[in-house]
UniProtKB/TrEMBL annotation:
<dbReference type="InterPro" id="IPR011701">
    <property type="entry name" value="MFS"/>
</dbReference>
<feature type="transmembrane region" description="Helical">
    <location>
        <begin position="284"/>
        <end position="303"/>
    </location>
</feature>
<keyword id="KW-0472">Membrane</keyword>
<dbReference type="InterPro" id="IPR020846">
    <property type="entry name" value="MFS_dom"/>
</dbReference>
<dbReference type="Pfam" id="PF07690">
    <property type="entry name" value="MFS_1"/>
</dbReference>
<feature type="transmembrane region" description="Helical">
    <location>
        <begin position="29"/>
        <end position="50"/>
    </location>
</feature>
<keyword id="KW-1003">Cell membrane</keyword>
<feature type="transmembrane region" description="Helical">
    <location>
        <begin position="315"/>
        <end position="334"/>
    </location>
</feature>
<feature type="transmembrane region" description="Helical">
    <location>
        <begin position="408"/>
        <end position="426"/>
    </location>
</feature>
<feature type="transmembrane region" description="Helical">
    <location>
        <begin position="127"/>
        <end position="152"/>
    </location>
</feature>
<protein>
    <submittedName>
        <fullName>MFS transporter</fullName>
    </submittedName>
</protein>
<feature type="transmembrane region" description="Helical">
    <location>
        <begin position="380"/>
        <end position="402"/>
    </location>
</feature>
<feature type="transmembrane region" description="Helical">
    <location>
        <begin position="340"/>
        <end position="359"/>
    </location>
</feature>
<feature type="transmembrane region" description="Helical">
    <location>
        <begin position="97"/>
        <end position="115"/>
    </location>
</feature>
<feature type="transmembrane region" description="Helical">
    <location>
        <begin position="200"/>
        <end position="219"/>
    </location>
</feature>
<feature type="transmembrane region" description="Helical">
    <location>
        <begin position="249"/>
        <end position="272"/>
    </location>
</feature>
<keyword id="KW-1133">Transmembrane helix</keyword>
Length: 438
């Protein structure tokens, strides 16, 4: 792997508590929260709504499988978004791409809220749903890289992990907003929720996007990118540059990041559906899920700060091993059909294991790439992980459950294998926590 351009310079202050840094970190957090509100709102609706309004004719089991398939489409599009936005972000700047990604996401989400159902428009409804999910995937694929790099490339070396956590923490924050919004309307009586109630949280995205744009337009471009422009370095095709010089970093980063996406999908998507189907109260499950996301936020910031002190690799490997130990207890709790069982499972899997994996991962991935292709390389690794981990996990575990006659044995083997591979990938990656000082 080629040596990287430092993300920060040694003369920078170690404090993040300045007016400019507060604005930058706030922009990364709020912007990501809004975009992930849109993206994760779809995931919750796929668990509870879309199988009934777009795929009801397929029967319960296959309708849920089809609903999860449309969920996977969005994750398939995320690497494409990462490459496209990464290309222009590495050539034109991080800030411009963040504004564009937010506009695209807002359009896709509001349009989903206006879609006719299969009963109203036939096959046109599901087809449009898939296309709009693709649009969401492209937008959020470009979002993470820009938001993470805005925080990392402005921050001093000693605080990069904690700064990057603000971009990552937008994911759980957005999930909280989306889950609570859907839960509020899920309390509607009769068929109102399936007829129109589920649409309101999607339409509310328009207001959130306006707020996010106002905030994002006030931040400045990153010093690292400005130095790159000032140096007059020859323009390249970032994707080709990454594949030629940093392909190993992409593969290792993708494998490591897949672990927390699988944890997320197992507990907050597949787990929600299974818990409700086995008898847990729907509103209770959604509220517990939102509460666990708060814990994920807290652990995310804690583990990010811990990674600044002891290194990203130690935190990520420790979290992977913890997940392996807790795999079968979590699965037993998810499938026992009680609200308390699901609550404990999601606290352990989503709050604790995912939280410790989530905190350092943005800085861990970004530190493996030079400034000239960092947006592209980090996005390719991270969004590739999202496609494999979050996009396919609900499909894979639903299929494993069917193949095993409802047994959790095969599902547990799958989860443990993912966590073990992540730990091995991190172990093979050079520690990047103090790279700027080298």
């Amino acid at each position: 792997m080629t040596s990287t351009t430092p993300l920060t310079t040694d003369h920078q202050p170690v404090s993040l508590n300045t007016r400019d840094m507060r604005r930058i970190l706030g922009s990364s957090f709020i912007g990501s929260a809004i975009e992930y509100y849109d993206f994760m709102l779809y995931a919750t609706a796929a668990s509870l709504v879309f199988d009934k309004v777009f795929f009801a004719d397929l029967g319960p089991g296959f309708a849920l499988f089809a609903s999860f398939a449309t969920l996977a489409v969005g994750y398939l599009a995320r690497p494409l978004g990462g490459v496209v936005f990464g290309h222009f972000g590495d050539l034109l700047g991080r800030k411009k791409m963040l504004v564009v990604s937010m506009l695209i996401m807002g359009f896709g989400t509001v349009a989903i809220g206006l879609l006719p159902t299969t009963a109203q428009a036939g096959i046109a409804g599901p087809v449009a749903l898939v296309l709009l999910r693709l649009i969401q995937g492209v937008a959020v694929g470009g979002e993470w890289g820009g938001a993470a790099l805005m925080a990392i490339e402005h921050a001093p070396a000693e605080r990069r992990g904690f700064a990057a956590a603000f971009a990552n923490a937008g994911g759980p924050a957005g999930a909280i907003l989306g889950t609570l919004a859907l839960s509020l309307f899920a309390a509607l009586s009769g068929e109102d929720f399936l007829v129109w109630g589920w649409r309101i949280p999607f339409l509310l995205s328009a207001l959130l996007i306006i707020v996010g744009l106002v905030i994002r337009l006030k931040v400045s471009e990153t010093p690292a990118f400005q130095r790159l422009q000032s140096a007059g370095e020859q323009r390249r095709v970032p994707l080709l540059d990454v594949l030629r010089n940093n392909s190993r970093a992409v593969l290792l980063g993708l494998t490591a990041a897949t672990a927390f996406y699988v944890c997320q999908a197992m507990t907050t998507v597949w787990g929600v559906s299974v818990a409700v189907e086995n008898g847990a109260d729907k509103n209770g499950v959604l509220n517990v899920k939102a509460g666990a996301a708060v814990l994920t936020l807290i652990i995310c910031f804690y583990s990010a700060r811990l990674s600044d002190r002891i290194g990203r690799n130690r935190v990520l490997i420790g979290a992977s091993l913890l997940g392996i130990v807790l795999t079968y207890p979590i699965l037993i709790l998810i499938t026992n059909g009680t609200l308390w069982g699901f609550g404990l499972a999601i606290v352990l899997g989503n709050g604790l294991v995912q939280g410790f994996l989530y905190g350092p991962i943005a800085a861990y991935v970004a530190e493996q790439f030079p400034t000239r292709n960092r947006y592209t390389g980090a996005s390719l690794a991270y969004q590739g992980a999202s496609m494999l981990g979050a996009g396919f996990t609900p499909l894979i575990v639903t299929g494993l459950s069917l193949a095993g006659g409802g047994s959790i044995w095969l599902i547990g083997v799958f989860w443990i294998a993912v966590l073990g591979a992540a730990a091995a990938a991190v172990r093979a990656t050079p520690e990047g926590t103090r790279r700027a000082a080298q």
